[in-house]
Amino acid sequence: MKTGLLDKISEKIMPLAGKIGSNRWLCAIRDGYIAVMPLVITASLFTLINSVILGPSGLTNMLFGNPFTEAQQLGAFISSASMSVLGLLLAFTTSKALTKHYGLDTSIGATTAVVCFLCLTPFGTDENIGEFVSTGYLSSTGMFTAFISAILAVELYRFLAGFDALIIKMPPEVPGGIARSINSIIPVTLTVIIFGLVRVLSGLAGMPVNDLITSWVQTPLLGLVNSPVGLVVIYIVYMLLWGFGIHSASIMNPILEPLFLITLTANAEAVASGGAMAGIMTKPFLDSFMFMGGAANMLALVIAILLVSRRADYRTVAKVGLVPALFNISEPIMFGLPVVMNPVLIIPMIITTLVGMGIGALATTLGIAGYTYVMTPWVTPPVLGAFLSTGGSIGAALTAVVILVVCVLIYMPFVKAMDREVEAASTEEA
């Protein structure tokens, strides 16, 4: 494949990719997801402490004969207060991001969207505790309902607020905050009524909207990202976009990462309840086995260059990119070497990603590596990230080392090919 052909393909793909990557709804989902990450990481940290350090099988009991079970309550409370209402939090953060995009009052838009999300959520009653909502609808299980209701609520509110006849005009003397609140009364009321009517109609049909979205949208998407064929297709496209110079994370992650979070949350809940984990594909799995040093296991490419490349410029870029790659930052290599728009490296980028996924999944299935259930920061160094995200699985750390070595071996012949390509070009010029 010639570079000129890559340029032509990139010219065709770039406009479409740019439109998708800048889509206001995907950007709102992305920003909403990012906003809750500190809470998810905090809850995961306490899940790790409760499962590895505290409790009957924890380190404190093994070393000191005291499980400190009372101390586990702290982590349990924090986890319940965050992960059990993750969908509700995402309804707020996503709608706030979209409302901000439109230049509307973010407090009004976000709180309206939360109420709309709750309008779609079944409430129960109990003679002892009164009215209640199952956290099953508010947690990661209700995540896509939260995204959809947040986007539709803000769009509907914005549409209705565009009609002057629905705006209660206030005199200039009224403070701005109060005026904005009163101006929004009718659009907000109509928005909430519409969502309430949807809930009534879905109740008459015998199927809550949450269950419909879970069955028709969320479950099929989860099936796609948990099937071998689906994952292979997704990450071939993911790496091809990178190869054409398109930041694929900005296009695909707003959809993929919420799905991975659902699986991670299910694993964490299984650990907390003493059950068996079953979900393999999570964000920490991706970072631990497929994206060591950044997308396409860039750390392996850096090591391969330092081991076999004779080109001084390649080795200089690799040395500069080594430390960032140790924290999963790949941009110095991606754009400095460059990796993007490089026809020689597109194939190993795809191969190393799929090999990392395959070896990691096989090791997890066979019980060699633990399941990931701790959301570690994405800048956690390779190998250490695999160890921490699996709750201290040495097998996971060793699996990451094996994958890294295999990926270095995969990159080596392609690095040598780049050397030969440049040498041939220099000979022709001479």
Automatic annotation (TrEMBL):
<feature type="domain" description="PTS EIIC type-3">
    <location>
        <begin position="9"/>
        <end position="414"/>
    </location>
</feature>
<comment type="function">
    <text>The phosphoenolpyruvate-dependent sugar phosphotransferase system (PTS), a major carbohydrate active -transport system, catalyzes the phosphorylation of incoming sugar substrates concomitant with their translocation across the cell membrane.</text>
</comment>
<keyword id="KW-0598">Phosphotransferase system</keyword>
<keyword id="KW-0813">Transport</keyword>
<feature type="transmembrane region" description="Helical">
    <location>
        <begin position="33"/>
        <end position="54"/>
    </location>
</feature>
<dbReference type="GO" id="GO:0008982">
    <property type="term" value="F:protein-N(PI)-phosphohistidine-sugar phosphotransferase activity"/>
</dbReference>
<feature type="transmembrane region" description="Helical">
    <location>
        <begin position="181"/>
        <end position="201"/>
    </location>
</feature>
<feature type="transmembrane region" description="Helical">
    <location>
        <begin position="258"/>
        <end position="282"/>
    </location>
</feature>
<dbReference type="GO" id="GO:0005886">
    <property type="term" value="C:plasma membrane"/>
</dbReference>
<feature type="transmembrane region" description="Helical">
    <location>
        <begin position="104"/>
        <end position="125"/>
    </location>
</feature>
<feature type="transmembrane region" description="Helical">
    <location>
        <begin position="74"/>
        <end position="92"/>
    </location>
</feature>
<dbReference type="GO" id="GO:0009401">
    <property type="term" value="P:phosphoenolpyruvate-dependent sugar phosphotransferase system"/>
</dbReference>
<keyword id="KW-1003">Cell membrane</keyword>
<feature type="transmembrane region" description="Helical">
    <location>
        <begin position="386"/>
        <end position="412"/>
    </location>
</feature>
<dbReference type="InterPro" id="IPR051088">
    <property type="entry name" value="PTS_Sugar-EIIC/EIIB"/>
</dbReference>
<dbReference type="Pfam" id="PF02378">
    <property type="entry name" value="PTS_EIIC"/>
</dbReference>
<feature type="transmembrane region" description="Helical">
    <location>
        <begin position="288"/>
        <end position="308"/>
    </location>
</feature>
<dbReference type="InterPro" id="IPR003352">
    <property type="entry name" value="PTS_EIIC"/>
</dbReference>
<feature type="transmembrane region" description="Helical">
    <location>
        <begin position="137"/>
        <end position="160"/>
    </location>
</feature>
<keyword id="KW-1133">Transmembrane helix</keyword>
<keyword id="KW-0472">Membrane</keyword>
<dbReference type="InterPro" id="IPR004796">
    <property type="entry name" value="PTS_IIC_cello"/>
</dbReference>
<protein>
    <recommendedName>
        <fullName>Permease IIC component</fullName>
    </recommendedName>
</protein>
<feature type="transmembrane region" description="Helical">
    <location>
        <begin position="346"/>
        <end position="374"/>
    </location>
</feature>
<feature type="transmembrane region" description="Helical">
    <location>
        <begin position="221"/>
        <end position="246"/>
    </location>
</feature>
<dbReference type="InterPro" id="IPR004501">
    <property type="entry name" value="PTS_EIIC_3"/>
</dbReference>
<keyword id="KW-0762">Sugar transport</keyword>
<keyword id="KW-0812">Transmembrane</keyword>
<dbReference type="GO" id="GO:1901264">
    <property type="term" value="P:carbohydrate derivative transport"/>
</dbReference>
